[in-house]
Amino acid sequence: MEMALGRRGRRRMAQSVPDSGLTGPVDIPEPEQPEQPKGLRARLSRMRTSVAGTVRGLPKVAKLTWQASPTLTIVLAVITLASGLLPTVTAYIAKVLLDSVVAAIQHRGSTADIVRITLFQFGVLAATAISSALTTIAQSLLQERMTLTIRHQVMKHASDLHLAYFEGSASYDMLRQAAQEAPTRPLSMMTSALGLIRTMITFASMIALLVSISPLLALVALLAPIPAFISQSKYGSRAFWLTFMMSPIKRRMDYLSSLVTTDTYAKETKLFGLGPYFVDRFRKLGVVAYERQRKLTVKRNVSSTSWGLLSTLVGSGIALYIALEAVGGRLTLGDLALYTAAATSVQSSVTGLFTAFSGMYENNLYLDTLYKFLDTTPEITAPAKPRPLPSTVEGHIQFESVSFSYPGADEPALHGVSFEIRPGETVAVVGRNGAGKSTLFKLLCRLYDPTAGRILLDGVDIREYDPVELRTKISAMFQDYVTYQGTAAENIGLGDLNRLTDREHIEDSARRAGADERIARLPTGYDSPLGRWFDQGVSLSGGEWQKIALARAFQREAPILILDEPTSALDAQAEHDLFDRLHTLSRGRTTLYISHRFSTVRQAERILLLDHGKVAEYGTHEALMAADAGYAELFTLQAEAYLK
Ligand SMILES: Nc1ncnc2c1ncn2[C@@H]1O[C@H](COP(=O)(O)OP(=O)(O)OP(=O)(O)O)[C@@H](O)[C@H]1O
């Protein structure tokens, strides 16, 4: 990006600015296609590859269309193919009509013939109109079904993918393309493919007529539109590259837009007066995106029109030749009409063939992204023969030399971590920001797999279990819990889908989390909508939301309880009450919680101190205080602050 600026001062500035879209230059690199050799042979071989690739893409597209709706696919195919003959029939009727008019004028024929032919012509024209209306209906319905089918497939696949997939920006761009661009492409490809066959039918029937008058003319008419095709295919793939390269900029625009239009961000945006700044950046990014699009659209159309003019010139030449032939008496007026129609039709068929093909080629490129996304295999999967979890999981947890690095990170988040938690024990995990505490929890839930070492649950490596089943044994609340735009009951019930409607259990979970009292004060209690996206719901405070999220964790009666800073937003009384209850709540369950408040940490049976991804200390509060090392230092620091 910076390179494109070319001016030294701006380049230096750009280097110090992260490429986040929030600050710095809004330019994005010109879409550059991979270097390709230019010679004729290379071009031909590229064309062969793209033809083969596009043709190979067809069965997949046909399958997608069929999955969306077999009936509509058949309707569309039959009408499209049948309408292939209509132009030839229409042209032929025009000839016959003209000849019978001339015959009637010269008293060689009757008006009854003309009426019959006109009626037939009406029939054909009506059929043309009906088939075009049916095609439109079938296409738009199929498009709806198709969008639904593909979005469903994308959603389903995304829900199966591992967490890390969503954290890489390249894969996120791919996901965006698959979700937004791809749904319209298969039908477009299918329509082009059917159009291609229809045009071939028209073409074959028409060419027969043209060849019969002059093979040379047929050849000229065939060759003229080729340049138009070349320009089409070149710009077709450029458009694809542009969209692909535009994806990051579009995502940044979406993000900026959400910063200004989403309730949770609006407060801070207003406080710091960021609204106009974000709006302006959104506009600037939009201008860059538009400029790219404009250049390409103009280039593409100017180019194809120029090439198209060449085809028109040939068409006019043919018309002139035939007209002169008619004047010379070598052709009838009807022949003239027929041959003119045939010549024009062959012209447009050939252009149509090439345009349909280049359209298919372009659509296929977009679809490749969809297939690539759908082919991405989830990295966290169940083994071929998952070991069934025992009906009563004891909750014995062992970390054995566990190391973990986030994809693309320079330093490991965890390094050689080993410790053991006995069944039913309560352990507090402490450490500075970034020490690796949340990562430890995520590994235990198998949201990631360790890069080295292993984690055992009841003596078995957790990778031997089915991760979905493993997670049913864990009740968890993360720091960045979700605030669902639903009712209070739904917000809690989602913690255990099997008990989504078990109101008694939901109320019990709320009581355990200390959320019951606030819910009772809501306009319609548990049925009150929370959040304002869909209904005029109630806005809760940060602490009240946290209690709801806690209740959701308690909703699942699992043998392992994991709480990542469960009281960060709670008031002192609520925090005290929760930890009071935690003794009862954690009875019979292995419990791990992260906290930065040492008054709550000391209540745990054992304390694990992490430091830069390593276990620094592990033991009871008393033992760690006696050791007088890192934990004792942090504890004293906080205690002194309170006593001052
Ligand atoms: N999704 C991620 N991708 C890449 N790196 C990450 C990701 N999440 C965390 N990290 C990095 O891993 C390290 C450990 O993070 P972790 O969230 O486990 O820390 P923590 O001890 O829970 O911190 P805190 O007390 O601030 O919550 C940090 O350096 C962080 O930058």
Number of helices: 24
Unreliable stretches covering 5 or more consecutive residues:
1-18
Biggest pleated-sheet summary: 6 strands, mixed
Oligomer description: single chain
What is the β-strand count? 10
Structural classification: alpha/beta
User: Overall pLDDT, averaged?
Assistant: 82
Task: Fill in the CATH topology of the largest domain.
Answer: ABC transporter transmembrane region fold
Please state how the strands of the largest beta sheet are arranged side by side: 6-7-8-3-9-10
What is the name of the CATH architecture of the largest domain? Answer: Up-down Bundle
Percent helix, as a range, is 55-70%
Please describe what this structure looks like:
The chain is an alpha/beta fold and about 650 residues long. About 65% of the residues lie in helices and about 10% in strands. The protein is built from 24 helices and 10 strands. It has helices at about 1-5, 10-15, 40-70, 70-80, 85-105, 110-160, 165, 170-180, 185-215, 215-225, 225-260, 265-270, 275-325, 335-375, 435-445, 465-470, 490-495, 505-515, 515-520, 540-555, 570-585, 600, 620-625, 630-644, and strands spanning about 395-405, 415-420, 425-430, 450-455, 460, 475, 560-565, 590-595, 605-610, 615-620. The longest helix has about 55 residues, at about 275-325. Mean pLDDT is about 80; it is low at about 1-20. Bound molecules: adenosine-5'-triphosphate. The site of adenosine-5'-triphosphate (ATP) has 13 residues, from α15.
